[in-house]
Amino acid sequence: MPELDLDGQLGAERAELLASIQAPELAELRSRATARRRRRHGLIAASAVVVSVLVAGTGIAMLQDGRTGTNREPIAGSPTHTTTLTPQPTWGALGITLLGLTDDVNDVPGNVSDIEFADADHGFVLAADCAKGKTQPCALTFASTVDSGRTFRTSPLPASAARAPAGQLPHLVTLDSGGLVLVGASDWFSADGGRSWSARTPSATPVARVPDGGRLALRGAPAGGGCTAHEVDAIGPDGTRAPLTNQPELDVCWASEYPAPGGAWWVGGTTVDAGMPAPAAAVSRDGGHSWRKFVFPGGLGTWTKVSVLGREVYAVVVAGDPGPAPVAVRGLHRSTDGGATFEHYGDVSLLPTMVGDLVPLLDGRLLAVAPGWRISAADGKNFRNVPPDLPWAGRVQRMQGGWAVYDLFASDLGWAAISPDGATWHKIHVR
Fold it and tell me: Has this prediction a pTM greater than 0.90?
């Protein structure tokens, strides 16, 4: 009798079920989320099951079912082992929940600096060992998971890719082709989940559009170097970067590497309006062939970054160098029509700084790391500290499959977590 593949059957049935589900409208999702938050307000529930959440607009559900997890596709570079999942510690406050780790944590040198998930199962981590007082570049470690972050396998990076200055750490970009790009001073491409890498020299020949399944990246000044000297590049399916023929008409500080729902590409930065510097954002709805610019009030030294949830687009006006350090928050604007028009929104007087990206939640609230969690009321006003029942956080960043938060508990511990919706976070088994 052939051996039953129970996991395979369950996975196929779950995929079929998800494919049959009609995603409700954002208003209905918000109504459900608000009702759920009210029922759970103040309650911290221990759970051994991680519920799968399908997020409108991302197209990815991070699925974890609490069963014994075994990495069925070992990645070269470290031995295979089995992780048995036990009931998880849970932290929560104001409707935000962090599901903790069980056992068999994978230790890597340094701290996790970048996380990317290509889909619900396949994720990648970059860790940087930048010991205090070191004059040498940071040592980089790459690890990957094929089971939603339950187990990780380290794989060696090429020698010339395994070190980088602390202020110029590379980052990971996943491609629809299944490829993975390490974007930095020099680019590296992997077609096999990080088992092997090949160098990619950015092309000087412009391209008219972002290729199908491609991504955006910035070329020019390193992080922390201001908003000048940047070009917006398109990354192709083979990992090669090339500048777009038509660049946005602004000095770009920030670009969304992944497209928003509907395929829009957003960049943010600064421009000159009526002879004066002003923060601005630009959107392309034709793959980078043309751009529409939006100018916001803010003044000298301010620039704009963008967060998207469905048809809601949030433009945050900030001041300070792009990079992992806190920036001052000067204004917030929202579009409810996919970025066709913007209006001033909310009140950021109680959100003086922010590290990383703004996280729009399904129930209408806004979540940020300042550092330390800050959350707004449902109308985008009255930001407040999230109580210490939820562990301190140092930075939150958008990734393809949702959000990643770094430096949980303290900046030197290396813990990180991922979330598909910004409300339920799962610590990953690596630090």
Answer: no
